[in-house]
Amino acid sequence: MLDYEKIGKFLQHLRLEKGYSQKKVAEKLFVTRQLVSKWERGISLPSNELLVSLCKFYNISANEILAGEKF
Predict the structure, then answer these.
(1) Which of 8, 26, 64, 70 would be a feasible disulfide site paired with 33, CB 3.0-4.6 Å?
(2) What is the pTM of this model?
(3) Right CATH number for 4-64 from 1.10.3720.10, 3.40.190.10, 2.60.40.740, 1.10.260.40?
(4) Count of C-beta atoms within a 10 Å radius of residue 36
């Protein structure tokens, strides 16, 4: 079972590690800042298409994002 809260915290960690605001990530992925916030708060997960974009954006695998940790 996916741990939305853990994934959200991990996405927030990745974003902060890069020094980006939620707005900057949203602009890069062509989504709203509110959607990025929902991911980071563990309310929802990115769609499959956006998951692929996040992987490229953060240079990380989908498995790592869905596990909420780097391997």
Answers:
(1) 26
(2) 0.93
(3) 1.10.260.40
(4) 26
